[in-house]
Amino acid sequence: MKKRKFTLFAVVALMLSVSLSAFKSPEASKTETVKDYVFTRDIDLPVLPAKNQARTGTCWSFATVSFIESELIRMGKGEHDISEMFFVRYVYPEKADRYVRFHGNVNFWQGSLSHDVMKVAAENGFVPDEVYQGLEYGMDKHNHGELAAVLDGFLEGVLKRRSTVLTEAWPEAYESILDAYLGEVPEEFSYNGLIYSPESFMSEMGFNPDDYVELTSFNHHPFHEKFVLEVPDNWAHALYYNLPLEELMEVMNYALSNGFTIAWDGDVSERTFSHRNGLALLPKKTWDERTEQEREELFETPQEEKSVTQESRQESFDNFSTTDDHLMHITGTATDQEGALYYLTKNSYGEDSNELDGFLYMSEPYVMKKTIAIMVHKNAIPPAIRTKLGL
User: Fold this and answer.
1) Exposed, middle or buried: residue 319 (CB in 10 Å: 0-12, 13-18, 19+)?
2) Helix, strand, coil percent content, the chain, rounded in steps of 5
3) What is the per-residue pLDDT across 193-209, written as a single tens digit (0 to 9) for each?
4) pTM, entire model
5) Could you tell me whether strands 326-335 and 31-34 are parallel, antiparallel, or unpaired per DSSP bridges?
6) What domains sit in the chain, N to C, each tagged with a CATH number?
7) Are 313 and 369 in contact (CB under 8 A)?
8) Which SS3 state, helix, strand or coil, does residue 215 take?
9) Is the Cβ–Cβ distance between 76 and 97 less than 8 Å?
10) What is the pLDDT of residues 303-321, one digit of tens each?
């Protein structure tokens, strides 16, 4: 077996091992085996168990809500299971309004991004999951196939079957569809013996959506400035801060070492991403170059991975080999038996979706190459980088 090459960032991470292990939850330093991999969790931040988005395209809400739940724990507010469908219910009308105003020439369907969750929170607060589960259609697991088809067909009818002008009735009719499938959002609710509104509940938690920013790294725009990230799910045309790759990785490591988790948006389309096996890798020998036996052995034992540069990352974004596929929640770091760095990541396929209770390990090269963007608390950004961004 070849000895793995460390990337520059892996070396930096090892040099900063004291910092990276400064925050240790009770689970930190846990050793875990995945086939022939032996992982030692260096940072393992508090997080609630993995939930299942099931047959929906709402990973954006599950990942960002998990991120919010960990933020509440970090802030000393305790463990609270927050409703994912609350945000879905509020985002769908926003998307419909944008879709109609653009005459159908903007992305609709189920996908969104972390900033959409924060916008809903800023305008409407949030609620516990027990208060709003969004399962009014008679199933015990989320399934938005019919709902999405109905909403899509409704909007197509509004746009294509209208007369000379739109009526004023369609927004209310659209809201009625959402209420029928997901339920009406409560104006007040009881939780732990107290009465709240969604706004007062978020206020009680001390959560401020304005404290969070999204960062990315692409060189077709100036660094240390904001730009509209060109991915289909950015239907709201939200702005992202642009950092050089080495600074983006510095933010991630700094955040985790200081007790902040990360909402992650990236590409999971590679054959070398396997939630079932609990691994996401960027091997030097590509999938297409491998024999059938080598493909079967890919997730069996550590192997040499590719080096990633700003240029190679940009190339894969430009040629669509890196796309905006999925959002997850990074909650820690680990090293394998050869000292390579991985990011402990919570997925939204449920606790029983793999042998790691719904988590996986993404290698450092994979994260460097396949990250589209991240969301972090402003204080999770190193001071020098914050100054460059004017935060």
Assistant:
1) exposed
2) 35, 20, 45
3) 999 999 999 999 999 99
4) 0.91
5) unpaired
6) 8-389 (3.90.70.10)
7) yes
8) strand
9) no
10) 899 999 999 999 999 999 9
